[in-house]
Amino acid sequence: TCSVAKKELDDLERWKEERRPGPIKLVPQRLGGKESETEARQKQQMMLMQSKYQQKHKREEYVKAKKAAEEAEILKKKAIQREKAERLEVKKRQQEMQRRDMLLEDQYYKTNELLNRLDLGLPKSDSCQIANCGPESTAW
């Protein structure tokens, strides 16, 4: 097995050597266009400063958008809570009105019941005598 592995490694090395690219031959030329080195460096510096400014501006925009989204979420939650509070208030008012109606109805029935009992319980003449009581009719 060692000799097979050694043979495969040798074949791989030979294959790499055969496929290796040859030397590159280029005609020497002046690079960088028509600008001098100082102009190119100044241009690079300006681009770097501009990219920093653009990154800062982008970051500020991101923070502003995030803040606006949070504000919108807060306003949405406040609106939901306000709606719940209004519904609760309406429900309380309805319950209060029902309670008041029941109280008035109960009071009306009780008053009528009392008046009916008074009318049925005492004859007319007795009620007049009680109304016209003088000091001589007291038991004291």
UniProtKB/TrEMBL annotation:
Q: What transmembrane ranges does the database entry give?
A: none
Q: InterPro entries given for it? A: EPSTI1
Q: What keywords is this UniProt entry annotated with?
A: Coiled coil
Chain intervals with Basic and acidic residues compositional bias: 1-21
The residue stretches assigned to a coiled coil in this entry are 62-105
Annotated region described as Disordered, given as residue ranges: 1-40
What's this protein's name?
Answer: ESIP1 protein
> What's the source species' lineage?
Eukaryota, Metazoa, Chordata, Craniata, Vertebrata
- Which gene is the coding source of this polypeptide chain? Epsti1
